[in-house]
Amino acid sequence: MEVKELLAYNFFNLGKYHLNAYEVILLVLLFLLARFFLYVVKKYLQRLRLKERLDKGREYAIYQMIVYLTYVITIAIGLESVGVRLTVFLAGSTALLVGLGLGLQDFFKALVAGFIILTERTVSAGDVVEIAGTVGQVKEISLRTTTVITRDDIVMIIPNQQLISDRVVNWSQNRKSTRFGVSVGVAYGSDTRLVERLLLEVAMKNDMVQKEQLPTVQFRDFGASSLDFTLFFYSFELFRIEYVKSQLRFAIDEKFREHKIQIPFPQRDLWLRNPEALENGRAPI
């Protein structure tokens, strides 16, 4: 009899709503059951990933969706079990729900975008991406935001809907090395074949340049002050590629100095229409 009285004791009263010990125990059991269910689901998804039937991104996306659904259902069952009728509550809170919906629409857009990104795998952790002209590496993708670290080690927190709606260049999408180029100009009269050979030697000696895909040299143009060449090479070093380019430029400058090949600076020829005027101290006409 004492146990029944204890279970029936009301800890909380608000109008027609009350909360007794039995209902508290029921809510705790519901929460523990939900936690156990999520634990089993997580282990099952991890097993699928270890068997290579599911990648890490999809595992995370599926698990997060199940987490949200599980807690929504658990809360709904818990409220019903303590006497809160959700249909009556929702009907009486229409204006409040509309206001919340309008205020949280960006939040839900980000959540939907997060599900799309994680399931379609358009962007993954570790990818090098270019967003609005800024290059960075994706560190973490959550349901609402994506964390990107730029080449200057600046952390950017980007809403997921921006990755869906804006133009995003994913340099890592094809999982292959990417082609880059270093341009250089040499003086007119230089041995162009020697220039080509030296540029290829520089590329082949750099450890961060792929040797499976051979570098190439293109004679791009007869410039105003120089013969313009571009050294094209492939590399997996996407994030710090500017460092690779810098090392190549150092080596190119050293090679050209060794072989007396000049890198000219812009030059202009000045033609005087009336040079005699300068000799007489008058401005030319």
- Give the class from helix and strand content and strand pairing: alpha+beta
Portion of residues in beta strands equals: 15-25%
Order of helices and strands: HEEHHHHHEEEEHEEHEEHH
Rg over alpha carbons: 34 Å
Overall 3D shape = elongated
Mean pLDDT score: 80
Reported for the largest beta sheet, the result is: 5 strands, antiparallel
- What percentage of residues falls in helices of 4 or more residues? 40-55%
How would you describe what is shown here?
This protein is α+β, with helices and mostly antiparallel strands and 285 residues long. It has three domains: 2-92, no CATH class; 123-170, SH3 type barrels; 178-258, Alpha-Beta Plaits (2-Layer Sandwich), CATH 3.30.70.100. The chain is built from ten helices and ten strands. The chain has helices at 2-8, 21-50, 56-81, 86-92, 94-103, 105-120, 160-165, 192-205, 241-258, 276-279; strands spanning 10-14, 17-20, 128-131, 134-141, 145-150, 155-159, 168-170, 178-186, 216-222, 227-235. The strands form three sheets. It has a five-stranded antiparallel β-sheet. Strands 8-10-9 form a three-stranded antiparallel β-sheet, with helices on one face. Strands 1-2 form a two-stranded antiparallel ribbon. Strand 4 (134-141) and strand 5 (145-150) form a beta hairpin. Helix 2 (21-50) packs antiparallel against helix 3 and helix 3 crosses helix 6 (105-120). The chain is elongated and about 110 Å long. The N and C termini lie far apart (120 Å). The model has no long low-confidence stretch (mean pLDDT 80).
